[in-house]
Design a protein that fits this description.
Chain lengths: 87, 139
Amino acid sequence: MDTTPRLTWQQIRERYPDQWVILVDHDWQEHDLSRYNTARVLACGPTRADAVAHGRPTLDAYRSYGCRYTGTIRSPMFRLKQLVLDP
Amino acid sequence: MKVFPFERSGDLMTVTARVWGAHGDRELLLVLDTGAAATSIEPAVLEGLGYASQDAIVRTRVPTPAGVQHGHLFQVRRFHALGAELSGFVVQSLALADEYGVDGLLGMNFLERFNFTVRPVEREIHLEPAESRESPPTV
């Protein structure tokens, strides 16, 4: 099941640009349970749903995983809060 | 005082977090949003952990520029962000759509538990739990 290499988030972003990736087997930090050094990429896809679909059925065996986007976060909702200067 | 790094993605400040449910736990990427009253998480994430709409505390309505969005408030078993672990923390299940690239928002119902300073240049958040503040000296 664990055939992919352990990668840092920076390495994951470089190897899977602008993709949604399913991350498993995180080595969570002892002093901060929401941060990790490395994880394995189980599957990837252009959307969150595609990545999850590609990860199945193996993904169902994992009780702990994450689905992250490796590209730049762009959001119309948040952009609406930005200032736009009238010419 | 604790110091935590955050990531900048575009103009947003994001932090990793983790939430637990009956079916395990999920890694989250949340936008630090002092304009959000509640911490919000994608419904699919919460549903995958076993939180069903019938378990919700209450339904919510969130007015947005695109219209009103409906959500639910859930009390999650365990929540961890910025070095703090909370049990029974209340989060809102609210859809943000894929284009956002995040799992939700870290809102004021979490952040108000701390005095915090955001240092954008250093990409650090300095946190001090509110209850650990020293009492003023008595005279």
